[in-house]
Request: fold
Amino acid sequence: MSRRVPLGSTAADLDAAIAAFVGELGDVAVVTDGDALLEFRDPYTYRESDEFDASAMVMPTSTEQVQAVVRIANEHGVPLWTFSQGRNNTYGGPAPRLRGCVLVNLRAMNRVLEIEQELAYAVVEPGVRWFDLFDALQDAGGGLWPSIPDLGWGSVVGNSLEYGIGYMPHGDHASHVCGMEVVLPDGSLLRTGMGAISGAKAWHVYPHGFGPSVEGLFKQSSLGIVTRLGVWLMPRPECYASCWVRVSGYEQLAEVVDVLRSLMLDRIVENHPMITRGLEVDADGNPYLDPMSETWHGRFALYGSADLIDAYHRVVEARLAHIDGAEVGRRNFDGDDGDGPSNHDERVQRGIPDMDFLDERLLPYGPRTGHLDFSPVGRCLGREVVELQKLVRSLYEKAGHPHVGGICLAPRSALCITTTFYDTTNQAQTERVYAAYSEMVREVARHGYVPYRTNLQNMDVVADQLDFGDHALRRLHEAIKDALDPKGVMAPGKQGVWPAGRRDR
Ligand SMILES: Cc1cc2nc3c(=O)[nH]c(=O)nc-3n(C[C@H](O)[C@H](O)[C@H](O)COP(=O)(O)OP(=O)(O)OC[C@H]3O[C@@H](n4cnc5c(N)ncnc54)[C@H](O)[C@@H]3O)c2cc1C
Reply:
């Protein structure tokens, strides 16, 4: 495979940068072999596509090395694309938006730097996976629980920066980040919030700072490389109960959403409930696909003392009781019973990571299966959730794709998460799926909805929909980008934000 030179750079720039990377990091930490780089393609685009190929990959092991990489990139005008674990599957995996970027692979920076038991937080480097954080917390006595996404192999940092979702009370991961260390596009180092003072005491406990808060600038961002992050955790409760509700029909779905909203606002249900259709669970609670099913399966959890959970559950049952045909149930666990949860729903609500969601029962095309998630954000009102479901389902029908959907609830918002499955070795099918996705983005935008994350192919499409004030948000993003990253070396095109030099590509 010939080396991919990024648009706006020359082959000589790239060669000079690679030589400098080798000089700084050593040759084992710099990968240029085309075959080795194939592993870092987006796993869910057409297998043979080179559209998002990287030119090289560097693997720094320290913040200082990350700074050196960024300075070299500036010196030679070569763009970078960072990943922490690179498991951002369905949104591009480790691959760059702009072909030819040099990947900055942070998997080797994988230390859990601190676990603060009394204040319930941890400080991690970017390569720390959910599995690693869980193990470190268990080794430290198991008194703190992480919130985790459905797959345990991703990184705490990458997932949290992308507004990732878990299913515990602190499941809005981006909101439970507190205190970052960031390498800026000129290679200098910043500590956010209370970390801005040397010898900071309150860096990972107070989320704001003195003056305008800048942490948001580094989420879904092309303005920095995060090299350490504070993450808030949950103290182990005495008990928890993994609960479920099952209904059929849209009217009943709306009622379930309204009841769960009331339970969340009343702080009885504190985690993020998930309601799925087309993703069933068997008698043992293990998930399998059944796109023809008309049953809505909701899962949520209760946390606290045994007495409290019994009292909460009585309220839950009373509020769900009036819904026609609703089946409600729960399984109780002691907080320290790590071996108790026997299926994914129970584990993910207790912060025990697994890989069940890549089980072969969920892969209609076997290892060739691609997933494309389409996830517009709506309001947590039963009638509006149903409207959005019907709209998205009609778009799936129009595209000829089976509809498998989930709704992830927060007290005020509802993420409508839907997935298309396809064969990544079938070019025509894969291209049809991505084209249909772009159409779905445009259609839901006409109704006032926007996805909360998206894949490489559709970052510009989603950004194009944000048209308020004649694209005022884009102008602000671009002004900040150009001020902080005048050479445009950091993640060009991420979330549709292009640096000046590559804007007319
Ligand atoms: C079956 C399935 C189930 C899934 N379930 C969930 C789920 O429950 N919840 C959920 O949130 N997601 C889910 N995902 C999506 C995705 O797999 C996860 O979010 C995953 O954790 C992201 O990968 P990562 O953590 O390795 O991030 P990375 O790939 O490392 O990073 C993601 C992006 O963040 C940015 N980034 C990463 N590191 C840095 C850094 N150090 N500095 C600056 N920017 C950085 C980059 O733009 C990068 O592309 C699922 C996907 C699949 C296929």
